[in-house]
Specification:
The protein contains three helices and six strands.
């Protein structure tokens, strides 16, 4: 009644308190590693990683011009959707820093600006959530792309939560 966390029945131990279940965690991590290490096919060789820029806390704030202007300070990006990639990964895909690219999954594709970022893990395409609104005012409507549009509607088997981080993609120039 006062809030809190309710454990799924398979995690309950009978003691009435939380017990760390290393076996379930190990199983979930092994499942996740197999998704990352063994792509669906060579057609989609990269993993998509979605994140929310601090300026768009909870993917809100895109309707505020100032927040659009500071959305991607680490890459000096603003007012558009970008795809941050490790330079080696981008180079292997024939993508130069600043290229207009398509990020495509089995569900669809979105347009973005390729940005090389040395801090990005090789094999990942990092895209911000918060752009690509079809409404929400003149400062956000039609600004950028929404990468959530290319994520399959799947649930994480361990948590039952939407699985936004195991989507496989490919990138190519527009």
């Amino acid at each position: 009644a006062g809030g809190g966390w309710s454990l799924p029945s398979q995690l309950r131990s009978g003691t009435g308190r939380f017990d760390f279940r290393a076996d379930l965690l190990q199983s979930a991590l092994a499942n996740r590693k197999s998704l990352i290490a063994n792509p669906q096919s060579e057609t989609f060789p990269l993993s998509l990683c979605l994140f929310t820029p601090l300026a768009f806390s909870h993917a809100e704030g895109a309707h505020l011009p100032y927040l659009n202007s500071i959305a991607g300070p680490q890459l000096d990006e603003r007012w558009e959707t970008w795809a941050g990639m490790n330079p080696e990964t981008a180079h292997s895909c024939g993508i130069a820093d600043g290229d207009e690219i398509w990020v495509e999954s089995s569900v669809g594709r979105v347009r973005a600006k390729a940005r090389w970022y040395q801090g990005a893990m090789p094999g990942l395409v990092n895209m911000p959530c918060g752009f690509g609104h079809t409404a929400h005012g003149r400062w956000s409507k039609g600004v950028g792309s929404n990468p959530a549009e290319i994520v399959e509607k799947l649930l994480d088997p361990a948590t039952g939560q939407p699985d936004w981080q195991s989507q496989r993609v490919r990138v190519y120039r527009v």
